[in-house]
User: Fold this.
Amino acid sequence: MKTKYPSFIAACCLLLIISSGCSINTLVANALTGDGSTAVFTGDSDPQLVGDAIPFAIKMYEALLDGNPGHQGLMLTTGSMFVMYANAFVHGPAERLPSEEWQAREEGLMRAKRLYLRGITILYDALDAKYRGFRDAAGQEDTFQAYLGRVKKEDVDLLYWAVAGGLAAYSIDILDFELSMRMPEWTAMILRAYELDPDFNGTALDEFLLLFYASLPFELGGDIERAKYHFRQAQDKTGGNNAGAYISYAKVISTHERDYATFRDYLERALAVDPDADIATRLVTIINQREARWLLDNAGNFFSSVDLPDDYY
Assistant:
């Protein structure tokens, strides 16, 4: 695939020769943060290769951001890469560790939480730079709604990644009081994002809201019917070819309803999706399918023996 952006290797070489000159740093920063700048990662077919490369890329972007502290593109890219890396290569693998490796599991989860928080701090810096006072207004409902009313469609990616990182961190440590107090703030942000651009990144927001409504307790806004609505929306938009939505439904709705038949059916459908059908999301599909296989192999962790068929064991 041809691209107008420098290759990852070229960018790495540039880092070795860049001086402290602001004009050069700004030139590189602008080149690396345009639309599609992370396509070399998301379109790859080798998760291990990408997982090994992303930490270096994150540090590269942090170095550029240090020289261009107000650069919106760098803040978005750096913050979102922290969240993506934490989710795909730290949080997910830690959750799938066997019970006897509980110490490694806890260490992995706490590392993921720290990475999420580093990412959302940068993303909030970007929002606060665009809308002065955004961060301080977050705890004041009326004032915060006024700020969200000023947010534009072009800011949906900042809202999305900030909320994704925040809620993921909270899911790891639900006893973190400070994070729990931010639930209304994140709810308002993600709903504003959906209002502005329901088709952001294809089905990203529908998949997010599927998990959001299905995972939250009722008193905090949980709503299984809304979750199912967003599942249908995600599948309608992709012609039923959305592995992530199938997996999310199986993991949070089928387990809640103790419906093993749908759990297995949807995970098998996820595994049937061709990763090469959409090159831009190939890596995501491959990682999702790893989770689908793990869920199928470990259904006993989510269902009682009464729910499982006799031939499961």
